[in-house]
Write a structure and sequence with these properties.
232 residues; mainly beta; Type Iii Antifreeze Protein Isoform Hplc 12; SH3 type barrels; 6-stranded antiparallel β-sheet; 17 strands; 9% helix; elongated
Length: 232
């Protein structure tokens, strides 16, 4: 984020003296509150945040700036997790201080309610929404239990563990060799015929199916266990 904020560092008690660490921390706190609010609004992200600015060396003394201080986000690109804010004076005695901080963002995301086995299919009672800090989660987390229910786990999980996209793969509802019902649709007209699945498939996936009436091999979309559909 390239936005910069200006802060008045002037104070009667400190006029013409020095800028103290507490003032730099206050500038950083104010800048991060503004930046995080802007990020959440722009990205339409729901959640509550907490900002913790690290303590600076209490012996730090910078010349009082005769201009407003400028604060910018040095790293990372979004104001979440561990961040560094560059506070700069562009006055007659210029200086720059890098202030480390941490921004936590809490959202309700999908977690497990109990230990789950690898290759198991997630049931409604296996998952729930709990508030967690997502600022340090790199993989895609889930914000609705419906995104997890019916999916297959790629690894075992412990109770109260955050489920991310790397833990999931689409469960196969049709397997190679299964007898299926092929529904061919054209507008309001639909025709059903027997078929045999020639490959595995999850919900909404396209698989190869043999029409047992005509012996033709076609591509059809899985709509339910034992059910596929094609458009005429």
């Amino acid at each position: 984020m390239s936005a910069a904020c200006l802060f008045n560092a002037g104070s009667p008690a400190l006029a013409d003296t020095v800028t103290l660490p507490d003032m730099l921390i206050g500038v950083t706190q104010g800048f991060l509150e503004f930046t995080v609010e802007d990020y959440l609004a722009t990205s339409q992200t729901q959640g509550r945040y907490e900002i913790q600015v690290n303590q600076l060396d209490p012996r730090l003394r910078m010349p009082m700036c005769d201009k407003e201080l400028t604060a910018t986000l040095e790293s990372p690109a979004r104001p979440l997790g561990r961040v560094t804010v560059k506070v700069r004076c562009d006055g007659a005695s210029p200086w720059t201080v890098f202030v480390p901080a941490q921004v936590k963002l809490f959202r309700d995301i999908v977690t497990t309610t109990r230990p789950l086995k690898r290759t198991g299919i997630i049931e409604p009672q296996d998952v729930t929404l709990r508030e967690r800090d997502i600022s340090l989660i790199n993989q895609g987390f889930l914000t609705s239990v419906d995104q997890a229910i019916g999916q297959k786990l790629t690894r075992p999980m412990v109770a109260d563990q955050i489920i991310t996209l790397v833990h999931l793969e689409q469960a196969e509802v049709v397997r190679k060799g299964d007898q299926v019902v092929i529904t061919a649709r054209s507008g309001t007209l639909s025709v059903r015929m027997p078929g045999e699945a020639l490959s595995n498939g999850g919900m909404s996936e396209q698989i190869r199916v043999k029409n047992l009436n005509s012996q033709r091999v076609i591509k059809a979309q899985v709509t339910a266990p034992g059910q596929v559909e094609v458009s005429m």
